[in-house]
Amino acid sequence: MKTAIQFFALILFSLAVKAQNNPDWPNIKRYEEANSKVAAPAKGEKRVVYMGDSITDFWINNDSTFFTHNNYYDRGISGQTTGQMLVRFREDVINLKPAVVVILAGINDIAENNGPSKLEDVAGNIKSMAELARANNIKVVISSVLPANAFPWRPAINPVEKVSRLNSMLKQYAAEKGIVYLDYFTKMVDDKAGLPAKYSKDGVHPNLEGYKVMEPLAQQAIAKALKSK
């Protein structure tokens, strides 16, 4: 198990390094072809886009039917920080003309994948995505960061306090702006402020059982967002 986790951590670390050295820093090319094949929404269609990092990126591989059966589009990219997501937000969210966007972001900023960043800036990037969405008549769901008490690819960083603080910032912003806040954290955290082994192999990324906890929570949040003014 330890060897598998170390191997997985090495993959994530290499992705982070590539992101720093890649001229297509936000990785806009990742979904360019897929986006070009997405037709305009049909009348009455309630299209949903999930914007995120590896937790969103791996979701469709763990449970593809959740997306195909619900007209959901996965636009997660492994290793990404909120700054990268903000840059590609128009291409991967706004241009798809969804009714709702579900934003799940911030853990890689805390892991310093692209270097140190202030939590206020991380929250600011998420707020900017929400503001862009609302300006384009897209309902917003802001997700809490999932619990994590260690990073396999950044063992020197203890994320517990920052995860808690970022979630508090996002929850407060959502309440102030009338945006739906999706609280994965409370439903998934263990007594060590981490993601329990039954939900994850590495303490950061959910397994299928973890995603099965997240899915009904996401759908409830989407339904609430669709009803909001």
Automatic annotation (TrEMBL):
The entry's keywords: Hydrolase, Signal
CDD domains from the UniProt entry: SGNH_hydrolase_like_4
InterPro entries: Ester_Hydrolysis_Enzymes, SGNH_hydro, SGNH_hydro_sf
Cleavable signal peptide: 1-19
Domain SGNH hydrolase-type esterase: 52-213
Pfam families per the UniProt record, alphabetical: Lipase_GDSL_2 (PF13472)
Domain of life from the UniProt record: Bacteria
PANTHER family: SGNH HYDROLASE-TYPE ESTERASE DOMAIN-CONTAINING PROTEIN, THIOESTERASE 1/PROTEASE 1/LYSOPHOSPHOLIPASE L1
The protein, known as: SGNH/GDSL hydrolase family protein
Organism: Mucilaginibacter litoreus
